[in-house]
Amino acid sequence: MERENEPQRTSDRRSFLLAGAAMGAGAIGVSRALAQPPRASADGGLTSGDVAILQFLAAAELLEADLWGQYNELAGIPDHEVPGGSGNRAYTKALSILDDDMSQYIHDNADDEQSHASFINAYLKAHGADPINLDKFRTLPSSKASGARQVGRLTNLMELTVDTSWWTRYRSDSKNPDLRDTLPQAVPDLAVGQHPAIPRDDDDLTSRKHLQAIANTAAFHFAAIEQGGSSLYPALAQRVTNPEVLRILLSIGPTEVMHFQTWQDKAGNAPPVTDPKTGLTFPKLNGRGPLFQTNLIMPEPTVFLDRKFPKCSILRPTQTEGIAQGAAKGLASSGLFKGQSQDFFAAVGTLAAAADAAERQ
Ligand SMILES: [Fe+2]
Ligand SMILES: [Fe+2]
Questions:
Q1: How many Å apart are CA 6 and CA 308, to the nearest integer?
Q2: CA of 116 to the centre of ligand 1 (A)
Q3: What pTM was estimated for this model as a whole?
Q4: With contact defined as beta carbons under 8 Å apart, do 222 and 229 qualify?
């Protein structure tokens, strides 16, 4: 299957734009932002808790933008909206087996994350608070595969451990992680070990099954990331004070849900395959009951708040306590930050702790 939109070579203005934005905003490093906790501004009406929540979300969105940018360089549509990279034909083709429009969706998800980060940072700045700039942590290596830019990255997509329990969590009619339930993995092999979700170099393109396993890993990672965002926004919204900040969280959060919904549908199209090089196996999901059935993509009504209530179709989890630190920890344990400095983990940890300390006034 060929894509209609072959990647165009475009001039790469992303780094220029980021540098320009950073200078224009007078953006400062995370450590200084944290050393001087912002106060509510006279006209902005933001509490320090609202600022902490927005700053953590800005960091999360910058991390999302970084990983989606890497996917876009290799399998999306590089253009003026999401510049960088020139596409990798073989990897793109392996992903297109899941859906002919994967390149468009990857591009649009990348575009959305950049817009989330830019908006939240601009809003913080407009209210006298410090925007978040992670540029000094862009130190991780790029894929060496054809199509990727050779620039420093925030995230590592080449050694991932992907939790695929979101698949069964949204299909269960009796369990909810908010009530301390655990759910089985859709792809048990992905939840252990370390797996590339992008080709690491052109050697990864030579075996068709090996490359399909990499593309399938990406497909499950796409949904894993976006279901995390889907839960993060409503969880943090419960502790926002300012109505306009609440509006921001309620307006961005559901776009993460739209991403997740798309990706979980596409993940169901990942062909069963065993990687001949690593043994990583994507099992057949259909025929194993409703917890695994691929077309059950609408969230199954399940227990919510208390088992005494009737089942309800809901996002899950949405409990708010410790959500930011939980999200940061989950991303770290997935290997997404493998190779990052202690300073990076400290900075993200401090932002998460500040967001978790925010209280609704
Ligand atoms: Fe986002
Ligand atoms: Fe997202």
A1: 54
A2: 5
A3: 0.89
A4: no
